[in-house]
């Protein structure tokens, strides 16, 4: 017998797939499991005291404002501060270019709501962030994919996909989730140029750029686009929508993130926000503003970079030591993830079952592939486990892989 609710859902609910892998990952939440599965920041370095003192200060000095409803686009001084620090290298950002969201995940939902009609093609990398696939699927997005390699999305394969007239393109240029790879400068320029030529909106999801622990920062797609348009001095009005967040440089629990886009699009986003949740929590915005204003976030980032850089090194070293020959992996210069490719024929979802028996976990690669494939791939997160857990967890995984290859 169908459940009462099965008879009442909107059609779009059919497009919301629950993944079998999520159920499998539930098993990995036991305390004895060393999990490289979740994309969680390192909790030991959360600045709890600092957030507590900023909260107290905000409540003492601007308590009524912190507890009152606020404007849908966000707390004005926060918009101003972000605009000020974003305007450089030929890019001019005004507060009208900025929009505060309750996490960039909400930004992805809003992009879907504003731009995607049922049946529209949405161009994504393969692999890509599964949260973005989930966010836009209910609006009827049909995903098409461009492959990527160690230099990110393959722009040589891009033009033929753009010729299919996708409604928008979604890319992660820095330390991509899930692969950890970074889009090279040459490919960034090519992507921006092609997107312009084909008139396709580009969603640049960039939660990790500040978490670079190796190599030189590269200009964002937003910056390159504004240079191409020679729009310095004028508020940005191009086809890039950039998603940024305080989740990885401060804490994800505050749910404060921001979008940079053309002022016209921002005005539409304001209407969307009014229908969704009116505005992002005022108290949280004021806390973030306080920590940004006093320079704390800037001071805190090097500790995150050091911590993740060290953990990545330990993970890479342990993989060299324990993984059997024939397995390949990426070597990210920042962020929280690396990507493992097993020999053809091995299935990472099946191996997760074996891994859980050894009390270690990862995310199988298939849900990151919008058009299927990737059965022999998996994602490891190095941000959230301690060095000891990383050494032990990778040794356990090595045993699982050795065993699978011997069979
Ligand atoms: N985009 C990407 C690529 C992410 O990895 C994440 C977090 N896992 C998000 C968006 C969502 O971040 P937020 O906490 O800002 O909603």
UniProtKB/TrEMBL annotation:
Its cofactor is pyridoxal 5'-phosphate. Pfam families: Aminotran_1_2. Keywords: Aminotransferase, Pyridoxal phosphate, Transferase. InterPro entries: Aminotransferase_I/II_large, Class-I_PLP-dep_aminotransf, PyrdxlP-dep_Trfase, PyrdxlP-dep_Trfase_major, PyrdxlP-dep_Trfase_small. Residues 45-397 form the Aminotransferase class I/classII large domain. One of its GO terms (biological process) is alpha-amino acid metabolic process. GO terms for molecular function: pyridoxal phosphate binding; transaminase activity. Belongs to the class-I pyridoxal-phosphate-dependent aminotransferase family. Homodimer. This is Putative transcriptional regulator, GntR family. It comes from Ktedonobacter racemifer DSM 44963.
């Amino acid at each position: 017998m169908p459940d009462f609710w099965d008879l009442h859902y909107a059609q779009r609910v059919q497009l919301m797939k629950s993944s079998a892998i999520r159920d499998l990952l539930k098993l990995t939440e036991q305390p004895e499991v060393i999990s490289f599965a979740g994309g969680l920041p390192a909790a030991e370095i959360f600045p709890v005291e600092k957030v507590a003192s900023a909260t107290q200060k905000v409540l003492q000095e601007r308590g009524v404002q912190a507890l009152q409803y606020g404007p849908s686009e966000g707390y004005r001084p926060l918009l101003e501060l972000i605009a000020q620090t974003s305007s450089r290298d030929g890019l001019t950002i005004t507060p009208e270019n900025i929009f505060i969201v309750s996490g960039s995940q909400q930004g992805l939902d809003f992009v879907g709501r504003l731009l995607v009609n049922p049946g529209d093609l949405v161009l994504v990398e393969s692999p890509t962030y599964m949260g973005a696939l989930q966010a836009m699927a209910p609006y009827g997005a049909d995903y098409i994919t461009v492959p990527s390699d160690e230099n990110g999305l393959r722009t040589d394969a891009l033009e033929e996909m753009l010729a299919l007239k996708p409604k928008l393109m979604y890319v992660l240029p820095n330390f991509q989730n899930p692969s950890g790879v970074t889009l090279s400068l040459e490919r960034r320029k090519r992507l921006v140029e092609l997107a312009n030529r084909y008139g396709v909106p580009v969603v640049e999801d960039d939660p990790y750029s500040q978490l670079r622990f190796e190599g030189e920062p590269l200009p964002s797609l937003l910056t390159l686009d504004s240079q191409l348009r020679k729009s310095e001095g004028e508020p940005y009005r191009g086809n890039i929508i950039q998603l940024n967040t305080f989740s990885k440089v401060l804490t994800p629990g505050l749910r404060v993130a921001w979008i940079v886009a053309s002022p016209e699009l921002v005005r539409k986003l304001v209407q969307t926000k009014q229908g969704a949740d009116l505005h992002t929590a005022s108290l949280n915005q004021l806390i973030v503003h306080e920590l940004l204003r006093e320079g704390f976030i800037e001071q805190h980032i090097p500790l995150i970079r050091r911590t993740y850089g060290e953990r990545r090194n330990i993970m890479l070293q342990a993989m060299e030591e324990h993984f059997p020959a024939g397995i390949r992996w990426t070597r990210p210069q920042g962020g929280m993830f690396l990507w493992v490719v097993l020999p053809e024929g091995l299935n990472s979802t099946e191996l997760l079952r074996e891994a859980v028996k050894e009390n270690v976990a990862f995310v199988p690669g298939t849900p990151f592939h919008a058009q299927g494939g990737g059965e022999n791939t998996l994602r490891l997160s190095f941000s959230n486990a301690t060095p000891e857990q990383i050494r032990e967890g990778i040794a356990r995984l090595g045993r699982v892989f050795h065993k699978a290859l011997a069979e």
